[in-house]
Amino acid sequence: MQHLLDWPRTVTRAWTDAAAALTGIDQAHPAPRLAPTPRATVSREGTASLYRFVRPEGVPSASAVPVLLVPSLINRWYVLDLRAGASVVEALAAAGLDTWLLDWGIPEDEDRHRSWTDVLDRLRRAVRRVKRETGAARVALMGYCMGGTLASIHAALFPGDIAALIDLAGPIDFAKGGMLARMVDPRWFDADAIADAGNVAPTQMQAGFVALRPTLEAAKWVGQPDLIGDRAAQDAFRALDTWASDNIPFPGDAYRTYIRELYQGNALVRRAHRVRDRVADLSQIKAPTLAIVASRDQICPAPAACALLDHVGTKDVETLRVPGGHVGAVVGGRAAREMYPALIAWLRARL
What we know:
The chain folds into 2 domains: 1-30 and 201-248, no CATH class; 34-193 and 252-350, Alpha/Beta hydrolase fold, catalytic domain (Rossmann fold). By secondary structure, it is α/β, with parallel strands linked by helices. 42% of the residues lie in helices and 15% in strands. The strands form 2 sheets. Strands 1-2-4-3-5-6-9-10 form an 8-stranded mixed sheet, with helices on both faces. The protein has a two-stranded antiparallel ribbon with strand order 7-8. The radius of gyration is 20 Å and the shape is globular. The relative contact order is 0.16.
């Protein structure tokens, strides 16, 4: 069964590599540096690390409130610091914001029993550590993709921790989750059968994403000759392709809850999602809240993320609509020109 899941990606990867070799893209110049923003590792816990990024020399602090970034569990964190000029982290640090990030790390086989509650507990400890290190009473919490869901749940459970909440393409109303929600409909999808086998392999999850856009890999191959002579475009392509190929497992127990309670049960917006016997009630979120949604996002359609603003207990809500897909909106060519400045302006006005 595994080789059937791997076959489409193996073939398209071979095509992509062949096109790169024929066009000379893979040898034209050194690969772009990934995760370039200087950082210190403040703490480690199991597979996870808490990073604090260094502001550029001469840039003064713009706020006493730290900003903690929460990436997805199933993708590597450095999509938020992909390369110079295409980095949310770089933009925030250059704006003088005290920028932190929780790197979930790469789950091992023994992490199959890590529960959704364990994940949220780890986020809770990271928030507490940031507060302790900085002396701040509250933090601005920004989650990307599944990290947006986790950040919103934490903010609902511990609203006193939060100075501002940003959901960057993270699903909240899973009934509006588009094709992914359709794929995991309980009438034909058994999350327990998947999770009982252990951690969910990257190829298993990637098969679902490929089904959303089955021609994407082939389109990359066809378009590679267009990159000849354009070093900036080559760097962008190679950095994003490296990140997109660097997939990691989903802890089995956490996956079980994520699919059954959130995707299949839509428990978060129904006020039925419980963590350690506490309901994650989004109406308890009183901090300013921003939803950033992408125009062509098939992984988290805009209504799934914007729903957060209908349920929080604050009137200071805003939607930032940006062009692109789920990833391109974060690291695409227009992200640095449009999304980063708008995000920074929103944060500065509230912090």
